[in-house]
Design a protein that fits this description.
alpha/beta, 5-stranded mixed beta sheet, 8 helices
Length: 238
């Protein structure tokens, strides 16, 4: 594949060597310094775009890719306020969009197991639940997209929880997400069910960004000739 990297920060720079190692070619690398190079002409040199930028840039990037028939794989989070625009453009141009708040294989299995676990715990009224996430100090969004996705999965299954709140809750109906920022932490996510007599904790700990980067490359390889909207659960048959 010929790949356009839209966003060449820490994730883009981790993805690039994996692409090359797997026999792909990077034909375009876009940063804040060369945004003028992000044109239809340059995009069309690529078979697919892998997008890890910022929320304020992501939606424009998606739409430009759809308009030029370039499949896009994205891990940028916190753009969903413009979800209606993105999916309207995707449909209008019969485009290809693979989105994941986290491309780690382990995290996506973590999502699935949390769905099953929440179903099992739904009738266990003696238990409460809370979450915790830890990321590096440079992470812009809080809670992380992965934490929010996990919370949404749990909320969908637990009848006694209505929404999530960060770092404090004013009612038992809210799922507490404790967030921490520490140096050199790629990502830790923990779900804790607890009662007066015991607790059950389920945790995913990332050791580096390489797992996220490899997942994004695998997603690009899988989706390049498909049309529509896809997530990791589609690729992994979860």
């Amino acid at each position: 594949m010929k790949v356009a990297l839209l966003g060449y920060g820490k994730m883009g720079k981790t993805i690039e060597p994996i692409l090359i190692e797997r026999g792909h070619e990077v034909v375009l690398k876009i940063t804040a310094e060369n945004i003028d190079k992000l044109t239809s002409e340059n995009l069309k040199k690529a078979d697919i775009a892998i997008e890890f930028s910022r929320p304020e840039s992501a939606v424009k990037n998606y739409v430009l890719c759809f308009e030029n028939n370039i499949p896009v794989v994205s891990g940028t989070t916190a753009w969903q306020a413009e979800k209606e625009l993105v999916f309207s453009s995707l449909k209008k141009h019969n485009g290809t969009f693979f989105y994941a708040p986290n491309f780690s294989i382990g995290v996506n299995i973590f999502f699935k197991i949390n769905e099953v676990l929440a179903k099992l715990m739904n009738k266990q009224n003696s238990y409460d639940v809370e979450m915790e996430e830890i990321h590096h100090t440079q992470k812009l969004d809080s809670p992380s997209g992965t934490a929010i996705k996990t919370a949404e999965i749990i909320l969908n299954e637990l009848e006694n929880k209505k929404s999530w709140q960060e770092n404090k809750t004013d009612t038992k109906e809210n799922l507490l997400i404790k967030t921490f920022r520490e140096e050199n932490v790629p990502g830790t996510h923990k779900v804790r069910y607890f009662s007066d007599v015991d607790e059950l904790t389920f945790e995913h700990v990332a050791f580096s960004r390489k797992g996220f980067a490899l997942g994004a490359v695998l997603a690009a390889e899988w989706v390049v000739n498909k049309k529509g909207y896809f997530e990791m659960k589609d690729m992994l048959n979860l």
